[in-house]
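Hi V.,

You were right to ask for the full record rather than a summary. Here it is.
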Amino acid sequence: MQTAALDLPIPSHAAAPSHATLRFRTLWISDIHLGTPGCQAHALLEFLRVTESDTLYLVGDIIDGWQLRRGWYWPQAHNDVVQKLLRKVRKGTRVVFVPGNHDEFARKYLGHSFGGVEVVEDCVHETADGKRLWVTHGDLFDGVIQCAKWLAYVGDSLYEFTLKLNRHLNRMRARLGLPYWSLSKYLKLKVKRAVSYVSDFESAVAREARKRGVHGVVCGHIHHAEMREIDGVLYANDGDWVESLTALAEHADGRLELIDWTQTALALAAQEQAVSEAPPCLPEAVVASAPALSA
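Predicted structure:
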């Protein structure tokens, strides 16, 4: 991987080792926003390279149609992500695409399959331990999207400005040897109205899941990774690949886990470094024939 092309969330020394493979039963990722400068395509490619799963859900806002209508932006890395996803299909992974509001154009093709990628409005996933999870992007429970779409477009432009400012800020932090820090994530957690918006969204989605009689819901949309129980319903948001670089994973036994790729990549790199620095193990025959050391 050419680390110089990274968008800063993962330092060069944190690139996942080439031979690492993380195996899961199911993976959920969303809010990639291909077609925008904020998309962390290189980090996502690393994630897709070292992970394998029986099923991969793309939970909306994979391609940012809003941004592409304003101006075309499609570097090679974004094309590589699409090709990598199609390659996973060819290798046997079931890939299911649930469109979001930024790629709502795909909702015209519900029930179709493109390159083996299934396009559905929403769906129910059953975990290995029998839990039924409703999978939806979540924009239908966003009052701003539903009641004042023009305001959502304004907010999207402001969000893009914040991400641009964030990139400049992190270039300066990198020169100072400081780790990646997300300004937009900080504001989302600190600004009272933003905190209220996130809480209201989570409660609305969980309430709808309860009405549908499922054990939980997996969604995206608000770029805030979270997994917790809300009034007896499991709420799981897989986050995004713009700010937090997160995914939701199901293990073979049905256990669910949020993956923070920044931390996981660092751990994998450290593990490989430890292995490479370990002294080589000598064959028993060599050890047996070696002269004894005198005290």
